[in-house]
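Need residues for this backbone.
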C-alpha cells in the first residue's frame, strides 16, 4: 500500500523518541538514570481521594457508561473552585465540561471549532498538543515565540494585520510548560480587550494553576470582566492533586466553545469512569493540605536543583511555578544544540532531560528539567553534572572525534 495518510504526514517524528531510546538502552545496561525528562508527578493523590474511588467502585451501579459532559456533582465542584479561588461565577450547567484530561479536551476542542486552513496562534515552544491538536484538525499554525523579550500583544497585532484569514483563536499557557513563565491579570486584561475587539477566541491552559512556589499566585483569565465572551480555560487534576493517570480535567468559560466541545465529545466518548469523577469531587471539595504539600515538595527540589546547578557552573533561572526548570544550554555546550547536549548529559552524567527543540523551533538552546526526582536523587544528579562540567573539554574533544 503506497497511500499516505494526510494527518499523519503532518505529525513530525517525536523528537523526544531519540532521547527516550537512549534512556531505555542505558537502563537496560543497568545504569541508574536520574530522569528529569517527563512531567509525570511521582507521588500518589491524597489518601481520601483513593479511598473514595475504591469505595464508589464497590457499587454495582456505577460501572456503566458515564456522561461525556461529566457528572453534575463534579461540574458543581469545579464551579465552587472557581468561586473560592478566583471569585469567578461558572454556571455548572453550561459553562463547564469535564474532559478526559485537559489534553483530550484541547484536542477535541480543536476538532470542534477548526475548519481546514483556519489560522491559530500558538506559543512556541509549547506543550505539544497546543499546536498539534489544531494541526491534526487541519489548521495552519502561526507561532508566537515565547520568552521574556517577546510581547504577545505585539504578535497578536502583527497576526491581525498580516494573516489572511485573520486568526480564529489564540492559545495561552501561563504558568508555561516548558518555559515556566507566569503572567498577571493585567496581561490577561490587555489580551482579552484586544481579542474581543478583533473577535478572536482565547483558549487558555491553566494546568499549573496551583503549582506555584513564591509570592506570585497565578490568576485565571476568566477573572477579566468580559473574558467569557471569547475565552475558555482548561484546568487539570493531574498536577494539582497528582492524578495524572486518572485523566480528569475541565474546560470552562465561553458557552459557545464549551457547547462545541460538548457536542464533539458526545459523539466520541462516554466520559471518565464514574467512580473517578466522584473521587475527583472529593479532591476538589475535601481538605486542601495536599496542595501545600505538593508545593513544598516541588519547591524543595527546585531549590536543590537550581542551587546545585549554579554551584556546578550552570546558571538556570529558578522557576516561580510549574514543575519544570527551563535551562539555557551551558555556554561550552551551546553550539551543539539541545538534542546533542541532552544525549551527552545522559552519557556522561546519567541525567535525562527533555531537549528544548522538542517543544518547537524556538525552544532550541534550552533543555527542560522536570522536578520529578526526590531531593536526594536531585543532589546526586547535580553532582554528576558538576563532574561533567569539569570535564567539558575532554568530553567535547571526544565528541568531535566521534563525529
Ligand atoms: C501545559 C499543560 N497542559 C496540559 C497538560 C496535560 O494535562 P492533563 O493530564 O489534564 O491532560 C500538561 C501536562 O503535562 C501540561 O503541561
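Answer:
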Amino acid at each position: 500500500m503506497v497511500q499516505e495518510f494526510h494527518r499523519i504526514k503532518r505529525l513530525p517524528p517525536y523528537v523526544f523518541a531519540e532521547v527516550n531510546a537512549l534512556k531505555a538502552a542505558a537502563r537496560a545496561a543497568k545504569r541508574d538514570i536520574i530522569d528529569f525528562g517527563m512531567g509525570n508527578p511521582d507521588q500518589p493523590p491524597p489518601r481520601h481521594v483513593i479511598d473514595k474511588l475504591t469505595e464508589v467502585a464497590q457499587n454495582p451501579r456505577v460501572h456503566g457508561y458515564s456522561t461525556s459532559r461529566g457528572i453534575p456533582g463534579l461540574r458543581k465542584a469545579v464551579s465552587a473552585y472557581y468561586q473560592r479561588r478566583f471569585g469567578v461565577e461558572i454556571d455548572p450547567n453550561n459553562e463547564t465540561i469535564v474532559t478526559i484530561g485537559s489534553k483530550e479536551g484541547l484536542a477535541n476542542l480543536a476538532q470542534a471549532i477548526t475548519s481546514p486552513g483556519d489560522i491559530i496562534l500558538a506559543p512556541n515552544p509549547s506543550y505539544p498538543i497546543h499546536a498539534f491538536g489544531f494541526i491534526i484538525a487541519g489548521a495552519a499554525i502561526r507561532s508566537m515565540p515565547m520568552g521574556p523579550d517577546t510581547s504577545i500583544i505585539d504578535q497578536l497585532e502583527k497576526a491581525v494585520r498580516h494573516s489572511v484569514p485573520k486568526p480564529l483563536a489564540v492559545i495561552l499557557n501561563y504558568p508555561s510548560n516548558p518555559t515556566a513563565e507566569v503572567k498577571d491579570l493585567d496581561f490577561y486584561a490587555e489580551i482579552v480587550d484586544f481579542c474581543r475587539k478583533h473577535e478572536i477566541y482565547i483558549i487558555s491552559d491553566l494546568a499549573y494553576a496551583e503549582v506555584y512556589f513564591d509570592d506570585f499566585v497565578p490568576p485565571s483569565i476568566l477573572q477579566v470582566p468580559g473574558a467569557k465572551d471569547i475565552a475558555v480555560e482548561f484546568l487539570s487534576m493531574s498536577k494539582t492533586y497528582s492524578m495524572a493517570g486518572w485523566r480528569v480535567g475541565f474546560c470552562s468559560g465561553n458557552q459557545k466553545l464549551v457547547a462545541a466541545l460538548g457536542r464533539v465529545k458526545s459523539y466520541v466518548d462516554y466520559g471518565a469512569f464514574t467512580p473517578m469523577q466522584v473521587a475527583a469531587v472529593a479532591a476538589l471539595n475535601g481538605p486542601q493540605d495536599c496542595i501545600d504539600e505538593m508545593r513544598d515538595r516541588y519547591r524543595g527540589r527546585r531549590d536543590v536543583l537550581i542551587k546545585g546547578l549554579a554551584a556546578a557552573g550552570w546558571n538556570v533561572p529558578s522557576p516561580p511555578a510549574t514543575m519544570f526548570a527551563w535551562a539555557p544550554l551551558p555556554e561550552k555546550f551551546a553550539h551543539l544544540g539541545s538534542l546533542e547536549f541532552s544525549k551527552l548529559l545522559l552519557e556522561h552524567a546519567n541525567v535525562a532531560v527533555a531537549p528544548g527543540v522538542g517543544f518547537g523551533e524556538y525552544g532550541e538552546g534550552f533543555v527542560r528539567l522536570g522536578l520529578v526526582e526526590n531531593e536526594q536523587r536531585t543532589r546526586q544528579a547535580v553532582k554528576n553534572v558538576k563532574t561533567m562540567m569539569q570535564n567539558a573539554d575532554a568530553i567535547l574533544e571526544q565528541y568531535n572525534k566521534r563525529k
